Amino acid sequence: MSRPTPPAYKTRNWPACNEALKRRGSLTIWFDPAMTWEAAPTGKRGRQPDYSGEEDQKTVRGTVFPTNAIRTCLTMKVLFGMALRQTTGFVESLLQLIDLDWSVPNFSTLSRRQKGLKVNIPYRSSPGPLHLLIDSTGIKVEGEGEWSARKHGGTKRRVWRRIHIGIDEQTLEIRAAEFTTSDVGDAPMLPELLGQIPPDQEIGSVTADGAFDTRKCHDAIAARGAAAIIPPRKNAKPWKPDTPGAIARNEALRASKRFGRTIWRQWSGYHRRSRVETRMHCVKLPGQRLMARDFDRQVAEFQIRVAVLNRFTALGIPVTEAME
Q1: How far, in Å, CA of 99 to CA of 89, rounded?
Q2: Using CA of residue 174, residue 310, residue 283, residue 89, what is the dihedral sign?
Q3: What are the two backbone dihedrals, phi and then psi, of residue 19, each rounded to the nearest 5 degrees?
Q4: 68 and 138: one domain?
């Protein structure tokens, strides 16, 4: 059976999309003079923290401070691909231009505080049930580049990490993100991604590739009351129908065998998963590798990338429709 002809699409909001792309390149940076930049006195003995959120349990025991200074500097670092010392000079110059006498964390403070930084990823809630698109890929953290390794031989063993994301199909913003070592597979992280979605958020469907065709994944999706759009593997066999996830998976297996995988993908809307692959490419646009060497610092750098990408996406995305 021949494949159906894919539809052509046209963009309906070119003026708004062009304006959003221009705003993404704007160098306008706003600093609120009323924001908490330097840490407030704790009223306790010992050295006082210099910046908000100082991780010293002896001086800020039981007190939670915002991390505006550290988060701002590290965001500039990731956004412009700078080293820690360059980031310090860049932020100092920005503060001088707007006549703010705030002190800037030095490179050692930024490195130390990045290890325990918790990043809140902003997102917009879409109306109706959430349709989650899942994907995973690897990202380099150490080792020679491909050309150098092939030409001269690598001087160090290449080290990779795996990033796992789940995006909202409607807003294209990342709603769940995980960062693991390279020995962790794709399927074990799907329940972790679903756990990042608030329990009161209704999930309509979860779309992923065949690597997620496991009992654990289908049971986790069924537990959230969502439909699993996961293609069964080519050598898939029916499972024992003892759980709702197994029953739903067996129905998808029967449909794909009866009508063919091409018809099943078109009927189920599996083609929508290409959007998360495009979003994964955008995650790597700031760089094909992470600059941090420590695992905890790499987690913070990845989360900052996700937060920056979501803010770019919130400025505007193209709205397309199929042409008849």
Answers
A1: 15
A2: negative
A3: -65, -40
A4: no
Domain count for the chain, please give it.
Answer: 2
Q: Specify the CATH number for the domain of residue 314.
A: 3.30.420.10
137 with 207, same domain?
A: yes
Range of the domain at 64: 31-114
Can you list the alpha helix ranges (DSSP code H) found in 155-214? Answer: 190-195
pTM: 0.86
The encoded tokens of residue 51 equal 């910046």
61 has pLDDT over 50: no
Whether 246 shows a pLDDT value over 80: the answer reads yes
Burial class (CB in 10 A: 0-12, 13-18, 19+), 230: buried
Report the pLDDT averaged over residues 79-105. 92
Q: Do the domain assignments include residue 167?
A: yes
CB 39 within 8 A of CB 54: yes
- Beta carbons of 318 and 17 less than 8 angstroms apart: yes
Q: What are the pLDDT digits (tens) for 66-83?
A: 478 889 999 999 999 999
The tens digit of pLDDT for each residue in 25-53 reads 888 888 888 887 876 666 676 665 665 55
Instruction: Report whether 228 contacts 221 (CB < 8 A).
Output: yes
The pLDDT of residue 221 is above 90: yes
Q: Clarify whether residues 176 and 243 are in a common domain.
A: yes
Q: Are residues 239 and 311 in the same domain?
A: yes
133-155 pLDDT, tens digit per residue, is: 999 999 998 766 666 666 666 55
User: Rounded to an integer, what distance in angstroms lies between the CA atom of residue 300 and that of residue 302?
Assistant: 5
Main-chain phi, psi angles of 130, to 5 degrees: -85, 130
Name the nearest CA neighbour of 170 among 137, 199, 204: 204
Res 57: pLDDT: 33
Q: Give the HSE-up count for residue 311: Cα atoms under 13 Å, Cβ half-sphere.
A: 14
